[in-house]
Design a protein that fits this description.
Helix content is about 15%, strand content about 45%. With about 625 residues, the protein is α+β, with helices and mostly antiparallel strands. The chain folds into 4 domains: about 220 residues, Porin (Beta Barrel); about 110 residues, Immunoglobulins (Immunoglobulin-like), CATH 2.60.40.10; about 140 residues, 60s Ribosomal Protein L30, Chain: A (2-Layer Sandwich); about 110 residues, 60s Ribosomal Protein L30, Chain: A, CATH 3.30.1330. The strands form 6 sheets. The chain has an 8-stranded antiparallel β-barrel with strand order 1-4-5-7-8-10-12-13. Strands 17, 22, 29, 30, 31, 32 and 33 form a 7-stranded mixed sheet that branches. β31, α8 and β32 form a beta-alpha-beta unit. α3 packs across α4 and α7 packs across α8. The radius of gyration is 35 Å and the shape is elongated.
Length: about 625
């Protein structure tokens, strides 16, 4: 056993020496304390003997479990971002009560009191999981007994024994362990919950054998040092090889490095916003989810108008009932059908679906004075085209009221035409941190600015992750001033570092374009809800939208870009294919009406999240195509 210990210690120090010779690797010690509980699994199959007579006394074959505690100190040493050596010195309890069942309520019992001194060495495998500091570890544990004694009560002897004797033939313990942990920051310390399973490589006693003894440990460690306090200045900035890569996504949804900077143009901008004909409800609720649908108290006539809607599809569709109420009041011949539904799985209240429809009807009649006879209410267990009913996302979408109307105008998309605006290409860029030490970063902030004006501030804990920025119309200034960005990090030892960069901006004003004889561009963007869940077919109603709303905008010299999208439900590869089918179906209808234009199609699927897929409205809005019609001004 001495040779095994010497070998393990030799391997440990050899790896340390190897790490010191690697200039590119991180060299960092950490130390602290650990504690927790251990579940001991005893697997005996041995016979005890009466020392006075030499005859057999107990025959223990039944497995037994017990709980003990462990604690001690540790030292960690980082070889690089992935590998970290760890060593521990501590104690742990492994006692148990072993039983022989003789029948007729007669038992022989052996009570073992075992405490071990442990020395363990191992390796932690870091940086294995995206956006998570969790690690996997494995190694060897050597244990030497501190306490190893037992007492035995035999059914044949009515007098209970309280005297303890040394367990004969106790062996030093050698075990192999595997486990996992996840470091977390709290009170300026690193707190790490950890679980390990330890497999004994031999019997606990050579005289009482076989006697296997494995452990499952649940514990927590706290890192005490090196101290995060720095002598001298309270903040120190260091430089490192870390960098930030700036990129964008092309029409096919593929990531590209942004090499030529941003282009900002003055254009006339209008957009058709999709109108989602659903109102969503919480679990077992008969009132609309207030986070997804805004309501007015009392009479809303005169309080709401389409002109007050923000230029944001999610926010527009938080006013579904008000928009429909306003349109129904302006179209006295229109009728409306409200179809309530439940999720078909988690909800079972009788009549809930119908009460949802009646609740929406009551809002429209009381707030907008709509004649109740113009609104019919029905209910179904599931909508006509349900979303994946076995998934949480699908169930939350199926808890809804669906609107249908005899007049197209009631449910048509909403067009917002703006004045001449500054539009940026690409409109979405991504900042990708590179070569940051995942073991060292505590917190980070990303600031994006132009000419000292802050445009976006992002922050997080742990290793910096890729961050996306959607540039809205008029967000950038009308000048050639570049975009500046700074990614600042605070390390575990209190030092700070910053990576700075800039993105060139090419601004083209209307005057500049006319001087260079470059025609101004009229760009119209259409976002149309054309597709049911997992479908690529275009309904007759939506085909009319394409022909009557999009078709007239397309000229012979227009370039029409059609990009398909999906929600997050399903495999990414499948969703990209579905998105392309949606774009192709859209192109076929538009091309029939305007064959001379130039068409470009792409399927991004779920790769680029254009709406928040964490809410039902965002997922419905994502089942769409975006159509950009670019037409030079004559």
């Amino acid at each position: 056993m001495r040779y095994i210990i010497v070998t393990l210690v030799g391997i440990f120090y050899s790896l340390c020496a190897f790490a010191q010779n690697q200039k590119s690797q991180v060299k960092k010690f950490e130390f602290g304390l650990y504690t927790g509980v251990n579940y001991n699994f005893h697997a005996p199959d041995f016979t005890t003997f009466d020392p006075s007579t030499g005859s057999a006394s107990g025959n223990y074959k039944l497995s037994s479990t017990s709980m003990g505690f462990h604690g001690g100190g540790f030292v960690d040493y980082s070889l690089d971002k992935t590998f970290r050596l760890t060593g521990r010195l501590g104690i742990h309890g492994m006692g148990a009560e072993l039983i022989e069942d003789l029948g007729n309520n007669l038992l022989n019992t052996l009570t073992a009191n075992i405490t071990m001194l442990e020395i363990s060495t191992g390796v932690k495998f870091m940086d294995l999981f995206n956006d998570s500091p969790a690690y996997i570890l494995t190694g060897f544990e050597y244990g030497s007994r501190l306490t190893s004694e037992y007492s035995e009560n035999l059914a044949s002897n009515p007098v209970s024994s309280t005297a303890y004797s040394t367990i004969p033939g106790t062996n030093d313990r050698l075990a192999l362990y595997v486990g996992a942990g996840i470091p977390m920051k709290a009170w300026n310390y690193t707190i790490t919950p950890e679980v390990t399973y330890r497999k004994s490589l031999g019997d606990f006693s050579s005289d009482l054998s076989p006697w296997g003894l494995d452990q499952l440990r649940l514990g927590v460690s706290i890192t005490l040092g090196p101290s995060s306090k720095i002598s001298g200045p309270t903040e120190k900035t260091i430089t490192n090889a870390a960098k930030v890569e700036v990129g964008y996504y092309d029409d096919a949804g593929d990531y590209r490095i942004l090499e030529s900077g941003l282009t900002v143009e003055d254009i006339q901008y209008s957009e058709m916003y999709p109108f989602v004909p659903f109102v969503f409800f919480g679990l077992n609720s008969e009132k609309p989810d207030p986070a997804l649908q805004r309501t007015n108290s009392g009479d809303a006539r005169g309080q709401f108008s389409l002109e007050t809607l923000p230029q944001d599809a999610i926010e527009i569709n938080k006013r579904t009932m008000d928009i429909i109420g306003l349109r129904m009041r302006g179209n006295p011949d229109a009728t409306l059908s409200l179809i309530g539904s439940i999720d078909g799985k988690a909800e079972s209240k009788k009549g809930l679906a119908l009460r949802r429809a009646e609740n929406v009807k009551s809002y429209l009649t009381s707030n907008y004075g709509i004649d109740a006879n113009r609104i019919a209410t029905t209910s179904k267990v599931l909508p006509d085209v349900p979303t994946a009913k076995n998934l949480t996302d699908g169930m939350s979408e199926n808890r809804r009221v669906t609107f249908k109307s005899s007049h197209f105008d009631i449910l048509e998309p909403i067009t917002i035409r703006g004045d001449e605006s500054r539009w940026t290409k690409p409109e979405l860029i991504e900042f990708r941190p590179k070569d940051f030490d995942s073991t060292a970063v505590n917190t980070w902030t990303l600031n994006i600015s132009q000419a000292g004006r802050s445009l976006k501030d992002l922050a997080g804990a742990g290793t910096p992750t890729p961050q996306r920025w959607v540039i809205r119309p008029n967000e950038l200034s009308n000048s050639q001033v570049p975009i500046d960005y700074t990614l600042s990090t605070v390390n575990n030892n209190g030092t700070t570092s910053a990576v700075n960069g800039s993105i060139p901006v090419d601004y083209s004003s209307s005057i500049k374009q006319s001087v260079e004889s470059k025609p101004d561009m009229v760009v119209t963007k259409f976002s149309l809800i054309l597709f049911d869940f997992d479908r690529a077919e275009i309904s007759p109603e939506n085909a009319e939208i394409l022909k009557n709303r999009v078709g007239p905008v397309i000229k012979g010299n227009s370039v029409v870009k059609i990009i398909g999208y999906t929600d997050r439900i399903g495999a990414p590869v499948y969703n990209r294919s579905l998105a392309l089918q949606r774009a192709d179906a859209t192109k076929a209808i538009l091309e029939e009406k305007s064959p001379d234009a130039q068409y470009e199609v792409a399927g991004r699927g779920e790769d680029v999240e254009i709406f928040d897929n964490g809410i039902p409205t965002g997922r419905v809005l994502s089942r769409t195509v975006q159509i950009f019609v670019e037409t030079p001004r004559k």
